[in-house]
Recover the amino acids of this structure.
């Protein structure tokens, strides 16, 4: 696949954005990030995420390792968390992911990576113990148990990328298989239905909880990670059946309209009982809840199950978005999570994996939209919702290259 129309503009924009966040002391014009973003060890909003941008640029020969090293050093400033708040996007697991990207290209950082990996395995096994206790009680899962941002889907994605079919990877995949096995429920709710709202906490608007289809916090993340395990060749009992059970649920709720198929971001008990989703509830085509994430998970499932019809449906869903200016207008943000960068990168990944030239042909237009949006002032420099993530998406489209192990593992897109 080639994307030659977008290469010069995308690379130039990525270069400009990367230069603006080259120095940790000046990257935040209004001061360093704080709060939940957890400067410096946050992948989403702190130094760890910006380090990933510079590592990837150095790996591709478009940046320098000195800049990457400055950001890596900044990311481990202070005490690194391996406590209950640590997870795929924060603390030791997030840092292990970024340092592995650097170490696999340079051979540097073996001691710190060894310590981060040991801490990440301990965090993972502690989470697994809690999850199995919950399963033994027959309770519904909390969001943070299995989601991608904080939970075992994100940890499983890392271990699969880092270790392949090692023991720790199999332990996480075995849990994800169990997550899909039915619980006693007269209402017929799936076993991953959460008795909380979209924040992960009880909310008055969701008295009966919700079923989440998204990639950030919903069932698309386990679907993508389990599918990747199948594609890797893992021979684990129940793995195929788990992917099929999730697909059966998502197929039940797939919607069709004149432009193409789509999946809801979430459903509540009333919608479940009615068996209907109003068309105005179609989510924006973002990575976190919309087509950029859900269509990619479906494509991975189709590839894993050797189901060309599912692959075609997923690619048709994405192509319908890319050809619909009204849908694109619903993503004014620039970021990987909520904005155009996530849609651009998911589109590149989907086109690359199957050689879909129709999707590839739409990439230049989407890259141009993102570049134009970046001209507006006030963007944060962070990875998940800011300029670092946009730069990484543009860099990848511009170079048409994301060598394995993939940087987008943390998004469950590869």
């Amino acid at each position: 696949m080639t994307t030659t129309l977008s290469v010069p503009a995308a690379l130039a924009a990525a270069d400009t954005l990367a230069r603006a966040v080259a120095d940790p002391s000046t990257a935040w014009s209004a001061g360093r990030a704080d709060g939940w973003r957890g400067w410096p060890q946050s992948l989403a909003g702190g130094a760890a995420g910006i380090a990933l941008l510079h590592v990837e640029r150095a790996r591709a020969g478009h940046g320098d390792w000195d800049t990457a090293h400055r950001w890596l050093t900044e990311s481990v400033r202070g005490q690194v968390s391996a406590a209950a708040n640590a997870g795929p996007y924060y603390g030791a697991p997030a840092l292990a992911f970024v340092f592995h990207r650097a170490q696999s290209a340079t051979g540097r950082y073996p001691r710190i990576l060894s310590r981060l990996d040991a801490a990440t395995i301990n965090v993972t096994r502690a989470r697994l113990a809690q999850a199995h206790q919950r399963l033994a009680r027959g309770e519904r899962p909390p969001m943070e148990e299995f989601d991608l941002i904080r939970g075992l889907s994100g940890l499983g994605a890392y271990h699969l990328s880092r270790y392949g079919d090692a023991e720790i990877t199999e332990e996480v995949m075995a849990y994800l298989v169990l997550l899909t096995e039915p619980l006693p429920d007269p209402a017929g709710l799936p076993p991953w239905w959460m008795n909380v709202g979209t924040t992960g906490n009880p909310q008055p608007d969701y008295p009966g909880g919700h079923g989440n289809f998204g990639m950030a916090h919903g069932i698309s993340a386990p679907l993508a990670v389990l599918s990747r395990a199948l594609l890797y060749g893992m021979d684990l009992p129940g793995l195929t059946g788990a992917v099929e059970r999730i697909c059966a649920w998502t197929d039940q709720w797939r919607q069709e309209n004149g432009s193409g198929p789509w999946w809801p971001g979430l459903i509540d008990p009333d919608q479940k009982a009615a068996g209907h989703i109003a068309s105005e509830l179609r989510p924006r085509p973002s990575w976190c809840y919309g087509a950029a994430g859900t269509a990619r998970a479906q494509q991975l499932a189709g590839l894993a199950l050797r189901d060309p019809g599912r692959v075609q449906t997923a690619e048709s869903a994405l192509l319908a978005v890319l050809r619909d200016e009204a849908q694109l207008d619903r993503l004014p943000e620039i970021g990987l999570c909520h904005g155009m960068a996530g849609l651009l990168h998911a589109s590149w990944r989907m086109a690359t994996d199957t050689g879909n030239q129709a999707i590839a042909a739409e990439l230049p237009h989407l890259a141009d939209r993102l570049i134009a949006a970046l001209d507006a002032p006030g963007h944060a420099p962070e990875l998940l919702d800011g300029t670092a993530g946009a730069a990484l998406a543009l860099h990848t489209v511009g170079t048409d290259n994301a060598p394995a192990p993939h940087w987008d593992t943390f998004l469950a897109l590869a």
Summary: The CA atoms of residues 52 and 98 lie 6 Å apart. Confidence is low (pLDDT under 50) at residues 1-6. The longest strand covers residues 211-212.
